[in-house]
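Notes on consecutive records. When two proteins share a document, each keeps its own sequence and its own token line. Never mix them. Below: protein one.
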Amino acid sequence: MDKVVIIGSGAAGLSAAIHLAEENVPCILLSEMPAARAQSNMAEGGINAALNTMGQDDQPELHEAETYKAGRFLACREAVHRLTHGAPTIVRMLYDWGMALNITEEGQIALRPFGGQTKKRTAFASASTGKQLMYTLATKARMYEANGRIETRTGCRFLKLVENDGRAMGVLILSVTTGSVSYVPAAGVILASGGMNGLFGNATGSVLNKGNATASLFANGLPLANLEMIQYHPTTTKLHGKNMLITEAVRGEGGRLYVEQNGEHFYFMEVKYPELGNLMPRDVIAREEWQWIKQGIQPYLDMRDIPKEVSIHKLAGVLEACHDFLSLDPLQEPIPVSPGIHYFMGGIYVNVTHRTRIRNLYAAGEAACQYHGANRLGGNSLLGAMFGGRTAADAAMDDLHGRTSAFRPPEQWLRPAFWLEGRQSGLNLPATRKTLNRLLQKALGIERNEEDMQQCLQDVRELELRTTGRYDEQASLDENVTFPDSLLLSKAILESALARKESRGAHTRTDYPGERDEYRKTTLSVFKNGEIHTTFEPIEGD
């Protein structure tokens, strides 16, 4: 019997693998790096669940409503309902598995406030929640590796989904060490490969998350959704050509944003938004910061009002990172911050069960467009990865046919040289990728407009013309194969942003301010017959 194949060893991938193993369904976990290098390890602040501890009088219904509102009503309400009502079970399960969450003196799971939420709802492990989560999941997965239910293969990259008659049959993978191409047949394929950081280059996430798998699938006709919804985290700081995240937990514990005016601190969020202040949703804070930055005024994040013992015990990771990488002591001086690309709400279009439009292909985590709508609440990413991975696994198990397929891809697909036939050498892929990064960063910032995005679209088309039919002898096979697909995906993002003529959540257009009811729909992008088709479809369940 073929095994379920999972692409990606982050929280979503491990969650799916463990759930399959719990039900005695064997799977293969494929990734370039071990789980300890997955982007999920970089999550700091926490994971949301209405646990109703610490006297919060919280309920999943309120978590649902605040998630839906923060996403500006663009998410599938049924999916949000399932996520938020399943959250307490997820967090308690992780705690039972041994995850080192902070607890109160009464022995309850401790909670902290996070942006866009009126209750303390975010369970946490100091400022290293992602590391603790991944350690817990990896330890759990090893139990099933020992009895053969989970097979882990590292050192391999996704090259292509193999389909037959509209059904996923398996995947082609490239060995990082040998450069060989091999076929892995699958009873089902769960894509948990993360976001599209590589298109922009300066995101807070892992540089390993290039979005190549998403780009490849889009080029093969798989629909993507809400690609224009790119979250800028309001508290990042520049570091060696990329942005380092300063977790929202700092503001959750009392950190304050300010700018200097007339020699005094002006706490702009607290003045304009007195109810939630520094804990407004991320899209709101990022836009407010941007108004100051445009004037040449630097925003700061101030931790000095947080009691020292709280910072040391709950934000130790932040103190360490600032000391090691910024030569700055946040207990003594403020942290200069600016918005940085952090999360992709858009991605592979899935339904509430995480099925895609290709049979036996599923997507979960940041690779999928689900739960977050036009803006993600902090603390909902790890939750979405955990819950989405288990949901995708449930769907894969429901669709199992219990027999091994005799299908095999064409033999030439296993020859690396086949993928570059007809191409000429001479392409400088790193330099070309940096050019693409700069173009997208400029046009798809916090504020956007028709002129800049149209110019960027034209520039990407010209870049496409200059690079078509060429390859880089120094680059890996998968990089050469998927770069044209990355250009195609970049055009789809731009066309989605151009098509949405309103401002909603993370998508702010200076030429179309305000939300418009006719655009409370899903932006669907499909590559068909050599063209990108962008349409607006009713939100699932509406």
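Protein two starts on the next line and is unrelated to protein one.
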Amino acid sequence: MTLLSAARPRRAVPAAALAPQALPVALLLALGALAGCRGADDPTVAAVGIAAVQGPGERSPYEGQRARIEGIVTLRMDDGAFVQSLAPDADPATAEGLFVLPEPGQPALEVGQRIDAVGTVAESGDGAVLTTLADAVITLRGSAALPAPVVLESAPAAWEALEGMRVRVEAPLTVSGNDALLRFGEVNLAFGGRLFTPTEVALPGEPAQAVRAANAARRIALDDATSVENPATVAWLPQPLGGGVTLRAGSVLHGVEAVVDERFGGHRLQASAPPARLEAAPRPPPPSIEGGLRIAGMNLLNLFNGDGQGGGFPGPRGARDADGYARQLAKHVSLITALDPAIIAAQELENDGYGPESAARELAGALNAAQPGARWAVVAPDEKPGTDAIAVGILYRADRVEALGAPAVLRGGPFDWGSRPPLAQAFRAVGGTDAAPFAVVSVHFKSKGGCEDARGANRDQGDGQGCFNALRMESVEALARWLDGDPLRLGGPAADARVALIGDFNAYGREDPMRALRDRGWIDAFETGVGGEAASSEAANAAAADRYSFVFDGQSGRLDHALLSPAMAATLRGAAKWHVNADEPAAFAYDGALGREPGPWRSSDHDPMLMGFDLR
């Protein structure tokens, strides 16, 4: 994994998560005592319309005061309920819904009940501002028909004006992120299609910030109206998550009915019913590309094999036990067998050497067992590259290509800490000396995680590139100098030879490191004339829709790249990303609740790359 996980909503004890904010302790105690002796019929507390309690701003004008409201229960939550006005006011800027948090001992609230409630107006929500009637004393007044939902044909200009209200979203909503689906019963959704990482489609700085703002205006989370973690089923799904319903990113929900909530950092929709229709994004078949020699690039998501003898778990990373490792290895073997490459440039492989008990050798052995006639081998330098727990690696089929000479490893500078030492190996296709040599370099630059360790220029500059961008740029310069020195003795600088740089650069397509490499003459295997610095936003989005390889924080982009020297690019016949991982819910990973499903799905959090070349 190359990025820190996006900050997920932390499901604390509901009462703590929705505790009133900004009220002095003494005042809360006094109000609580007062509430205990004054019921909902207390004549000293004025009746206030819900819209007036909400007010036109983010915080209630009645904050800290006691108020009496009446309304209809529209959605029951674990710790309270949403209540909507019986008689709306005429101001569209004031919401007609309110969250009611009853004091202990009050009757359970049910949808359709008409209630009076007296409590203290507070702002709560664990990182957001949800207007709440806290410590409420409830009086039941019978039942009433639910108010009609507000129909949304597009993203509203301001969710605040709909807080606590029933809505029905007629516009299609695209699943943009699903990492919290099975844990919290929620997904990130977007109006107007998939969201792309700003620096994938726009230059760092103001252009990227504009994309970020546009993304924020289009996105909304859909939650399951419960604080229960790891629910047995996700209430709003039409059937349990599994092979039939995977809810991949790119799936589309139609007719979402919910109540607008605000907690865990922002507005969200609490589902009140399953969507009218789920348009599930299908799992795609392996890509079919031209070219007689196939080279793959893939992040193996911390493939650690314990002590190599079935024990030694858990290690510093990867599987927690031998059973988990067996599932992880099986997923990788299934994926690689389907892609059928001759060479693999791998990242996040355990840095445990190249002996018979190493993770690299065990992967090669598993591939040989799964592919009769294949002779998978491992590029093995004299010593393991660097001191990091993970390393890059290169595996190849000796029945298809032969390794020429010794491999080369770049150490020092940014590759002493942060970026992993690149590994390079020269090859020639098996079958005759007329096949021209070429080189593959496996690359893994420093991630955008660990920002607390960043200093100086490596701090996040606020331009959309995250922290350690300076170190990644230093890695570009060191890598370019090394390759110009012809470490594999191909007969000249990399620009004049057939060389492929493949790996996880931890930089999106329009960030500084990738532009610097392209400026040096390296050709992106996935750039087809679209996405350069002068490209329109529409063209950049269209290109990004095909070549993303990673989904983070509900946005799609590519950290994984294949950069070719001009001579190598001239032999390229096809390139594709297989979206077998990034769009899949994490539940299908080897260590997820559904990780025992056979096949390649969610073998990593990165999608693999596949390139086809004609080198004769």
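For the record: The two ends are 37 Å apart (CA to CA).
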